[in-house]
Amino acid sequence: MKNSRDCHSGIVDGVGVVIYPLMSMNFSHKGGGMRFKLRNVLIVLVLYGYLAAMLFAFGLGAVIAGALYVAVTIVVCRAMIASAERRRDANSLEFSRSGAANALGVQYGTFFHTFQSKEPVLESLKSSFGNALRGCLGCSELKFIALKDIDRDLPSPETRTFMLVNGKESARGTKFHVLASFTREGAIQSLQWWILVGGARDPNKVLWRYAFAPFTIPFMLLPYARREHDPLPGLLTVYPGFFNGIDVMTRTRELQFVAFENLIEVLDSFGIDTSDLRQQRASVLNVNVSGGQASFGSIVQGAMNKVTGTAKAVNA
Q: pLDDT tens digits for 26-38?
């Protein structure tokens, strides 16, 4: 029969082995707007204390074995997050079948336009697109980013190159991105851009990710290895405050406005009829409904609708 002191000592040792990896984690994130809630730590302590007490019924060895298992899964979870962050910071993003840009954020707006011209219109658009966003809104330099579909059902991975511009963050750490694609087939030229909004690291979600690692990691390892699971989006939160909501709506529409006006300016410079685009201006900039069916990533309900346009006029 185990005495109470041995029982207490065994539980404390077991909980200590589990909590130490948790306490050594960095839950903060620069620019984040979410406050770390200490009550979540207390809940985790109570949860693991209860589990340790249950395991102690099978002996101190069961407590130690369980604690080691928990510690290992937490370390593995941390390694998965760190690896995903390294892939995200690179100039390429891997995905499987869908959610190509989920690492950048959720889709708040998109625009697609096709026109006919034998002139190098897209080349001019590529050079002016980033300059306009940087000059008007202080965005970053335009860079190329490769999106790689590694779906196991494909005979081989497929990679396509897009253009990316990063906007200024909001006061609460919300990030803004403009992803663009330019394609040409003969005289038919097309462009599309997506407005993506990414949240800041939520320390409370990080804590719970680590706390539940023993129950979730065994089921995530295979999907993660296949690039079917991205651990980062679930750790981010777009701060739900009123002021941040204003900032998000304002900045996404500013990005949409500058990109749209730059498109009209370039098309006009090549003598391409833009009357249809001008008629769509109000729809592109002011519509506030849920997104369309085809999306680059996740769509936020209440975000701007996808608008498409096709110009039939050919410049002389």
A: 544 444 557 888 8
Q: Is pLDDT larger for residue 26 or for residue 87?
A: 87
Q: How does residue 4 score in pLDDT terms, banded at 50, 70 and 90?
A: very low
- For residues 161 and 149, is the Cβ–Cβ distance under 8 A? no
| Cβ neighbours of residue 46 closer than 8 Å, sequence gap 6 or more | none
Long-range interactions of 267-272: CB distance < 8 A, separation 24+: 267/115, 267/121, 267/311, 269/124, 270/117, 270/119, 270/121, 270/124, 270/315, 271/315, 271/316, 272/115, 272/117, 272/121, 272/311, 272/313, 272/314, 272/315
Give yes or no for a contact between 49 and 101, defined as CB atoms under 8 angstroms apart. no
Residue 151 confidence class, pLDDT cut points 50, 70, 90: confident
Distance CA 231, CA 43 (A): 23
Kindly give the residue spans of alpha helices, DSSP state H, lying in 143-274. 203-211, 213-225, 242-269
